[in-house]
Design goal:
The complex is a heterodimer of chains A (306) and B (217). Chain A has 13 helices and 8 strands. With 306 residues, chain A is α/β, with parallel strands linked by helices. The chains are: A alpha/beta (306), B mainly alpha (217). Chains A and B meet through helix 6, helix 8 and helix 10 of A and loops of B.
Chain lengths: 306, 217
């Protein structure tokens, strides 16, 4: 079964597509058959990052049933072993992917035969993004060391946490739970999944045990991108600590990627950053991250609820 | 989430073990401040204003309690019956700095030393044997030994004070001249020996001892 790496970050410009294309490139280079899927629905540009400027097929073809199988939407890239499902010509309403199409997509992704599948997700916390992120236990969060970006990554984490908890309750039960949380902790408390979990622990101990078990099997990772020299290098560890302590989710800090002007140059020249500037610090950080992450993955899919 | 933050004990709040030292507590507190301060990037937007205020107050309380030894002991006693703190490790075998020089040496106490000398002098003044020995023209090792025994001073005590090797002191009292160092050193030894016993005139007696020796070569 393929290793699936969803990459999400909450805020635009934090480097999701850059990371996805770089990881894809490194995995392919190490001989792994790798597929990049551009799931940044409505704002796709992963094809530009991997030098496929005029993709002939795209994800929309699968949704519109132009191709029978998701596999038929796969494009080769100039790099050996690296493949792409582009979102370049997605229909303009693709961002509002209906629920059943999303489930169909998730099932189709699970059936694809690759060593690694990297999902490049969009910014924000739309249900589509959350569900694609939760397609694997190995979700990767990426953020830059700026308040805006950190704010959004926390928001994304909470949204994902809540989305996952939601799967354990029927619609009615969840409404009842919502009511109880409001009674216990006041009106705005429902925005914080940690409060909800505290109530679940008291009111539904069996569900609480299930949720805890579920989350302990997740292997979330955090990557800090665009770290300038003057930035606090311990920031990632501290973020993971605070999440562990206050949200109760285990997120492993995978590493920093140094800020590098050359990334901008490489994207403007539409060449792969790792090929164009292989000896920069950022390129080195990416290689270290790739090595670390591809050694560390265990159980994969969470499609059990589909 | 195993535990809500406001139910954590002070050790859990600061992320330290129950036996943590003051240095560990201080650095844990600083690390926590870095994370929870209002201007901290780490927890930006993570907490509401009230939550942050509450957390910082708890943090402050945890630190001020644990860093104060008396308050900490009291807090530990409160925790213990509830079994929260677990075992409070008090490490009895904690290493202390070890003196790298003479292990047995006692700190010189000048008052005690003066006292000791005065006692010796009193004894010398009363003792007939010592007066007798001092008056002799020819002094030998056994005479020195007699004086020492009369004063009740052990050879080890002399060794400690004069830093003359114990075996030399033994040879000295047994008149084993062939085993002792050269005459220059020997005279110094005798003088130090006598001075440590407060026998006067040390110079004169040591000269008489040296004169009594038959030259080695």
């Amino acid at each position: 079964m393929a290793h699936i790496w969803p990459i999400g970050g909450g805020k635009g410009g934090s480097g999701k597509s850059f990371l996805a294309s770089s990881m894809g490139r490194l995995l392919a280079k190490s001989g792994k058959k790798t597929l990049l899927i551009d799931l940044d629905l409505g704002a796709a540009n992963l094809h530009t990052m991997v030098d496929v400027p005029y993709p002939e097929k795209c994800f929309s073809d699968f949704i519109a049933r132009k191709v029978a199988d998701l596999h038929d939407a796969v494009l080769p890239t100039p790099f050996p072993n690296l493949f792409l499902i582009s979102g370049a010509h997605d229909s303009l309403d693709i961002a509002n992917l209906p629920y059943e199409k999303k489930i169909k997509t998730l099932r189709a992704i699970a059936k694809l035969d690759y060593d690694y599948i990297v999902l490049d997700l969009g910014a924000g916390t739309a249900y589509n993004t959350l569900d694609f992120f939760l397609a694997s236990r190995n979700g990767i969060f990426i953020t830059t060391p700026e308040p805006t970006s950190i704010e959004n990554v926390y928001r994304l984490m909470r949204a994902i946490y809540l989305r996952r908890i939601r799967h354990y309750f029927s619609a009615n039960d969840f409404k009842a739970l919502e009511k109880k949380v409001r009674e216990h902790l006041g009106d705005d408390s429902f925005n914080k999944p940690e409060n909800i979990v505290a109530v679940i622990r008291k009111e539904f101990p069996d569900k609480y045990a299930l949720i805890r078990k579920d989350f302990s099997s997740f292997r979330f990772k955090l990557i800090l991108n665009q770290l300038r020299k003057q930035d606090n290098t311990a920031l990632g560890e501290q973020i993971c600590k605070i999440i562990k302590k206050h949200l109760g989710i285990g997120v492993e800090f995978a590493g920093n990627i140094a800020y590098d002007e050359h990334v901008h140059d490489a994207i403007c020249q539409r060449v792969c950053f790792l090929d164009r500037y292989p000896h920069t610090r950022a390129a080195n950080d990416l290689r270290v991250l790739n090595r670390k992450m591809s050694n560390a993955f265990g159980e994969q899919l969470t499609l059990d609820y589909l | 989430m195993e535990k809500d933050f406001d139910q954590m004990n002070y050790y859990e709040i600061l992320d330290i073990r129950p036996g943590a030292t003051a240095v560990e507590i201080r650095s844990a507190y600083n690390a926590a401040l870095q994370m929870y301060q209002p201007e901290s990037l780490v927890s930006y937007s993570f907490f509401s204003r009230e939550e942050r205020k509450k957390i910082l107050a708890q943090l402050e309380k945890a630190y001020s309690t644990l860093i104060n030894e008396a308050q900490r002991i009291q807090y530990d006693h409160e925790l213990n019956p509830r079994g929260i703190a677990g075992i409070i490790e008090t490490d009895e075998t904690a290493k202390k700095p070890v003196a790298i020089f003479d292990m047995n040496r006692q700190a010189t106490n000048f008052a005690a030393r003066k006292n000791h000398n005065a006692e010796l002098k009193a004894k010398i003044a009363q003792s007939r044997i010592i007066a007798d020995v001092i008056a002799r023209q020819n002094i030998k090792g056994q005479d020195l030994k007699a004086i020492r025994n009369e004063l009740g001073v052990t050879m080890e005590a002399i060794h400690q004070e004069t830093k003359i090797r114990l075996d030399y002191l033994t040879y000295l009292e047994e008149d084993k001249i062939e085993k002792l160092p050269a005459a220059v050193f020997l005279k110094g030894f005798i003088r130090a020996y006598l001075k440590s016993l407060c026998i006067e005139p040390a110079d004169d007696i040591s000269t008489r001892y040296m004169n009594g020796l038959t030259p080695k070569n």
